[in-house]
Amino acid sequence: MDERKLVLLHTNDIHSHFERMPRIGEALRQLRSKHAACNPIVIDCGDHMDRMRPETEGSGGLANIAVMNETGYDMIVPGNNEGLTMTPDKLALAYGERQGYSVVCANLLDASTGEPPHWMEPYRIFERDGLRVGVIGLTAYYPDFYSLLGWQILDPIETAGRLTELLRPQVEVLVVVSHLGITQDKAMAERIAGIDLIIGSHTHHLLEEPLLHEGTYIAAAGCYGRYVGELDFRYDTDSGSLRLHSGACLDTDGFPPSPELAALIREEEQASRERLGHSVAMLAEPIAIDWSAESGLGNLLASGIRRWTDAEIGIVNAGQILQGLEAGAVTKYRLLEICPPPINPCLVRLRGEEIRVALEEALLEDFTGKAIKGFGFRGKVLGTLCLSGVRVEYAADADPYRKIRSIEINGERLEPDRVYNVGTIDMFTFGIGYLSLGRGETVAYYLPEFIRDVLEKQLGDIEEIRLSSVPRWYSV
């Protein structure tokens, strides 16, 4: 029997946790050395970048690229945090600095040409120990968002099926690197014959050992750089069969940090801090945020979203803002600290009754104190609702969902069946947080701006700052 060895090392969903990257780099160095005879394929499955971190925000992602260059990947797949929080031009600049590895994604195309941009390819064929290994990259399917940035995104499972038919006759081993999530990965294994391995990400799932699902191995290494995946396969050239010899996710705490990467990251952090250090506003007085009650900074953001989207009213949850602002100069670095989420403004059409339900929930600790994760949220708790164009009278000691006595929209009583144009945030349209706010019709998403860009504009408007102190909620 003639057996060939194939090793794949993988990371995913690091989300700019630069503090973990020196250990990741050392782990991959040691694993490459361990398997040096078969030359492992080293892959990142996406969401390496996250603009909540100053190193990424201040460098346009180039700090991440510098780390990946030093770490020594063979290929990477863009995740939604790369594709949706950075414009195509900025991605082209960032990936233009990559060294020695490929950017691979089959279902993301330049909308103007219908082809991948010059810096990206749909698949890659590697040669390892006499084996041809085909690797297809796929990213999460968000057509409404990608179209606003000039991308055409294809259905990932259909794309995987088409490319599997194309590549299967050309390779001994076929791998899909998926930034789709575990549910989609299982669906792909069930629907498409011929995929040997899916290396997954996006839903931050940790598979300590690979699954064998419908004849396809599925692997994933958690999130935030805590683990590195190691997959060791054997390929029988006589039977054409692939078997897993060993597979595990290794805790990066078990590896010392790479001194070279640690030094590089310190340099990138300092450079990014300097780039973000210029003042964008000057405050005569502090502006506070309160997650459990109305506050000036929350009102200011709600008003800004209303203006940005040209809506009748503005609604945002207070938990998007992590800290208040002090008097004096406000820098981009400080704005990133207090409002880090990659969340976009949007315009939705909501019935009055749906708005009323959300406002009732905003008076309940079950909602204001609710810890949530994902969908771009980078705060600790959901927080109450901050409003613009809305006046609410409520009795704090009344029963849940019976606290509100009156709601006025721009001076007129709320009509339960009337549809209102509401400026809010994309997170609600995904069905997270205040659920009734996600039941309306989404009219428009506003990309590439984040809500901190809205807040920055508001902080330059003295009249808006003054109006932020006017109450929206009245206890009666």
Flag low-confidence runs. Answer: none
Order of the strands making up the biggest sheet: 4-3-2-1-13-14
Backbone shape: elongated
What is the annotated CATH architecture of the largest domain? 4-Layer Sandwich
Structural class: alpha/beta
Mind explaining what this structure looks like?
With 476 residues, this protein is of the alpha/beta class. It has 2 domains: 3-272, Metallo-dependent phosphatases (Purple Acid Phosphatase, chain A, domain 2, 4-Layer Sandwich); 278-475, 5'-nucleotidase,  domain 2 (Alpha-Beta Complex), CATH 3.90.780. It is built from 16 helices and 25 strands. A 6-stranded mixed β-sheet has the order 4-3-2-1-13-14, covered by helices on one side. A 6-stranded mixed β-sheet has the order 6-7-9-10-12-11. It has a 5-stranded mixed β-sheet with strand order 19-16-23-18-24. The N and C termini lie far apart (83 Å).
Characteristics of this structure?
six-stranded mixed β-sheet; 16 helices; single chain; 25 strands; alpha/beta; Purple Acid Phosphatase, chain A, domain 2; 5'-nucleotidase,  domain 2
Question: Can you lay out the helices and strands and say which pair or pack?
Answer:
Layout (H helix, E strand, L loop, with lengths): L2 E9 L9 H14 L6 E4 L9 H6 L2 H10 L3 E2 L3 H4 L4 H8 L6 E2 L4 E3 L12 E6 L2 E9 L3 H6 L2 E3 L2 H12 L5 E7 L2 H10 L5 E3 L6 E8 L2 E6 L5 E10 L4 E11 L7 H17 L3 E5 L12 H14 L3 E5 L10 E4 H7 L6 E7 H10 L3 H4 L16 E4 L1 E5 L9 E6 L2 E2 L5 E7 H4 L11 E5 L5 H9 L2 H6 L5 E3 L1
Parallel strand pairs: 1-2, 2-3, 3-4, 7-9, 9-10, 10-12, 16-23, 20-25
Antiparallel strand pairs: 1-13, 5-8, 6-7, 11-12, 13-14, 15-17, 16-19, 18-23, 18-24, 20-21, 21-22
